[in-house]
Amino acid sequence: MQRIVFASGKGGTGKTTLTALTARLLADGGEHLALADCDVEAANLPIALRAEVVSSEPFAGGSKAVIDAEACRGCGACALACRFGALGPSADYFRAQTYELDPWACEGCAACVSACRYGAITMVASQAGEVMAAETAPGPMAFGRLAPGEDLSGKLVTEVRRKTDELAEARGIERMWIDGPPGVGCPAIAAITGTDLVVGVTEPTLSGEHDLMRLVTLARRFKIPVAVVLNKADLSESGARRLRERIAAEGLELIGEIPYDPAVAVMPGLLARGELTAYPEGPGMDAIRSIAAWLAERRSARG
């Protein structure tokens, strides 16, 4: 299985659009892919590829404290033990002698459980999100939905990767496209670990260069090669020149430069609505075709 992840040190660089379009182009050429959207806090690849969900699995989160109002005596020992301010007197006038929990503030440390002398508090497992399996035109897809307020996105990304591997094995698919999350934190680490190539999507700005190098530093820690796509390459002539020089100095391969093209800018919306009847002609789409061809020919990114 060859795994290629499209990533960036920040959001909004166009990596999801590039993931969707290159996957569609390869599928048009007869090659189906397994797809993983590892941006579990805002999965947009299922929207761009009109994914049809076929199944879901619950993703377990940490335990949360639950107070039995009948057993609570309102002594306040739980609130004193809680370092996160998650416990306090009930706001209900008729339950003034009981304490209640703010589930958004609870960190699941269970200090309140041992502090309660009346056994009124127990820890209950929560559901932090879902892992979804779906069908798209380029091939099967897995993606995640993280519940509001949950912070286990790295673990959910790992589960999305596991599900995608499962879907690929069932279909005999040997290549996987991963739409990575923005940034270089735990979700990004979980997305790029064990992959064969990171496609870093950047823009010709100072922040674009800075965030690209953060991504390159991370990928090098895992000994994963990085190829670069410069999006909106004509946004700044000096910025593009500086990035080309930096990419060359770092020994990276620049596999494509995509100029700003209004015809390409509207394509995600057309894809999502199922209104894309033909690919537009123009410099933007020509560059994306070239990138897709480069990726199609790269059968083994390592060694």
User: What overall geometry do the principal axes of the alpha carbons give?
Assistant: elongated
* Strand-residue proportion: 25-35%
| End-to-end Cα distance | 15 Å
Q: Would you identify the CATH architecture of the largest domain?
A: 3-Layer(aba) Sandwich
Total strand segments? 11
**What order do the strands of the largest sheet run in, or round the barrel if closed?**
3-6-7-2-8-1-9-10-11
> Structural class of the secondary elements?
alpha/beta
Approximate helicity band: 25-40%
CATH class of the largest domain: Alpha Beta
CATH T-level fold name of the largest domain: Rossmann fold
Low-confidence stretches: none
The average pLDDT score comes to: 90
User: What is the number of helical segments per DSSP (H or I, 4+ residues)?
Assistant: 11
Q: Let me know the largest β-sheet.
A: 9 strands, mixed
Number of domains: 2
